[in-house]
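Before the break, one more example. Copy the sequence into your notebook; we will annotate it together after we see the structure.
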Amino acid sequence: MAAIVGKDCMVTLGTSKIIGMGTWKIEGITTEMHDKSQFCEEFKTYLCGLKDGGAVSFNGWYDKTDTTGQTAIRTANLKCSCLTDIRFYLSCTTVGSRWMPCAVGMTGSGHTASCIRITSWDIGADKGGLVECSFTGTVEGNMELQ
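Here is what the structure looks like once it is written out:
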């Protein structure tokens, strides 16, 4: 696979680009590991426990006019809404690859669909720069690359 240039990425909510974003990060799944080792074994052995879907974070420049993006994300945080239509693109167009919550859960997992709940946001200003904003969310389920 060819290298991807970060300047060509974007974040959307549905089909609306979230204005001002300049970075995004997806922290992947972690799995609880339960030690099932016993006396006289040379190496530890484990059972896999619950999985944690990880977290997402994205930030950039604050835009108070972006009602379909930044304002909608803050409202989702206030209402503890489950976002299923947030996308993290690897290109500047909606044609390229994107990371998103799974529409269908893994067979046998008991989880039917995934989503992201925005856990925090902040806005900050510096007299020598532009007003910045950032968002953090928790993944329920799994993110997939489409």
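The helical segments are 70-79. The chain has a mean pLDDT of 92. Try to locate both features in your own notes.
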